[in-house]
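dumping this here so i dont lose it
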């Protein structure tokens, strides 16, 4: 699948409208988070993308048109050091960005391509979140302001009964020490290109990370689309976790039951299909901005 190419040129009214729409979309996500941050409040679902990932709110809000787009009647100072102006308008200096980001772009392209080429595996049932609290007390767990749905003993029993099949390094590294030997794999950063698969919730949430790391080579609307999917994935991630977040409006997906596992797998499949579209759009944007031949 190849994304449609951006228009070669945008009149001032058009690019300003796109920028305003992006800012309004992001502001709706940012406002509750920034309000909590001012008061010291925390939300285990809605704040996650802002605390786990390195992209700051102001960076998410800033609009970039993507590579190969000419902005008429624009000031390059509005967009940053990577933009240049000529008589026709302002464009991203893609060559400059590609030189500076060459290693990162190559690594990300390789990971996206490898992941897209594999079948989706949907049998993990969110046990990675359970492995992160395995054999811990309520006081020891990461989100200890929120209760566990089951006792620590019953939580551990579910992990041992179901087993853990996690292929994602950045989830595996948060497993408790006694949970790690229970996983079928031992993911590492070096094996990420080999193990990452398109059914994994965390791999699909990470599309947001790869999108913002590729910015400004990719349009901010695509970064926003990846963020929007990641928000929804995070909600399932925590609904299927051992935490009880019903009071926050997140009813549990009880993966300790057959019905809960069926619900989880169906939603996971939907996310995998939607993530595949975004992964293809990221690769298409890279092909436009930094051809594979480079």
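and the seq i came up w/
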């Amino acid at each position: 699948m190849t994304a449609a190419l951006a228009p070669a040129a945008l009149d001032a009214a058009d690019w300003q409208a796109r920028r305003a729409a992006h800012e309004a979309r992001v502001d709706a996500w940012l406002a509750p988070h920034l309000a909590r941050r001012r008061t010291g409040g925390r939300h285990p679902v809605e704040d996650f993308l802002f605390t786990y990932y390195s992209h700051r709110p102001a960076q998410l809000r800033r609009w970039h048109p993507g590579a190969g787009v000419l902005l008429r009647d624009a000031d390059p100072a509005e967009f940053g050091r990577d933009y240049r102006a000529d008589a026709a308008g302002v464009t991203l200096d893609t060559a400059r960005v590609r030189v500076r980001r060459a290693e990162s772009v190559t690594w990300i392209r390789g990971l996206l391509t490898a992941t897209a080429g594999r079948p989706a595996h949907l049998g993990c049932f969110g046990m990675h979140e359970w492995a992160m609290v395995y054999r811990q007390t309520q006081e020891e767990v990461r989100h200890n302001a929120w209760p566990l749905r089951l006792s620590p003993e019953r939580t551990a029993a579910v992990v041992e009964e179901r087993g853990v099949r996690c292929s994602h390094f950045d989830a595996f590294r948060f497993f408790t020490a006694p949970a790690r030997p229970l996983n079928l794999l031992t993911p590492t950063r070096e094996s990420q290109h080999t193990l990452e698969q398109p059914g994994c919730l965390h791999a699909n949430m990470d599309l947001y990370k790869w999108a913002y790391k590729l910015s400004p080579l990719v349009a901010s609307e695509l970064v926003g689309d990846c963020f929007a999917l990641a928000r929804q994935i995070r909600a399932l991630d925590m609904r299927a976790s051992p935490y009880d977040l019903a009071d926050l409006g997140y009813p549990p997906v009880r993966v300790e039951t057959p019905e809960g596992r069926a619900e989880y797998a169906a939603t996971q499949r939907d996310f995998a299909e939607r993530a595949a579209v975004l992964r293809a759009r990221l690769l298409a944007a890279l092909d436009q901005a930094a051809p594979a031949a480079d």
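The CA atoms of residues 109 and 283 lie 7 Å apart.
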